[in-house]
Backbone:
DNA sequence: ACATTGACTCGCG
DNA sequence: GCGCGAGCCAATG
C-alpha cells in the first residue's frame, strides 16, 4: 500500500509543498507596503523609495515594485501613483503598462510630460504643515 | 549552487 | 544631464 494512499484515506492531502509558500509569500513587510500604497490620495504621486520608507523599510524600493507586481489588479491598489524617485514612470516608454499608467495619472489631473511627473507639484505632501512652511 | 535580472535609489566624477 | 558602482534582495534560469 502506498503511503500517499494511506494519507489520503485518512483525509490528509499534500502537506509538504505548502509550508514554504506560506513562509515565503506575503510576509508582514508586504502587507505594510500595500497598506501605505492604498493611502496615496487621488491626484498625488510618490516614489517607490518613499513608500518603502513610510512602511518602515528604508532602502527597500525594489521590494515595493515586487509587491506591486505580485499584487495584481485584484488588489485594487493605486499602483499608477507610484513613480521613480525622479518622477519618471518606471515602465519602458511606449509599453502597454507605461501608457496605462500615464492615462490613469492624466485622468486624475496629474501632469505627465515626457513620461515624467513633477513631484514638487504633485508629490505626496507629508502633512499640511510642511506644505505651508515650504518656500 | 551560482549568475542574472529587475515596477529602485543615491553618491560621485 | 549621464554613466558607473554600490546597496538592495527575491525570483528566475
Residues:
Amino acid at each position: 500500500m502506498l503511503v500517499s494512499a494511506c494519507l489520503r484515506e485518512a483525509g490528509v492531502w499534500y502537506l509538504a509543498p505548502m509550508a514554504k509558500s506560506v513562509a515565503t509569500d506575503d510576509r508582514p513587510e508586504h502587507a505594510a507596503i500595500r497598506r501605505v500604497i492604498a493611502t496615496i490620495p487621488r491626484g498625488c504621486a510618490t516614489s517607490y523609495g518613499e513608500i518603502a520608507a513610510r512602511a518602515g523599510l528604508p532602502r527597500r524600493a525594489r521590494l515595493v515594485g515586487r509587491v506591486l507586481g505580485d499584487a495584481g489588479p485584484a488588489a485594487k491598489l493605486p499602483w499608477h501613483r507610484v513613480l521613480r524617485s525622479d518622477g519618471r514612470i518606471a515602465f519602458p516608454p511606449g509599453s502597454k503598462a507605461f501608457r496605462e499608467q500615464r492615462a490613469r495619472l492624466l485622468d486624475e489631473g496629474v501632469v505627465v510630460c515626457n513620461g515624467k511627473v513633477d513631484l514638487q507639484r504633485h508629490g505626496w505632501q507629508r502633512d499640511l504643515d510642511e506644505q505651508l512652511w515650504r518656500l
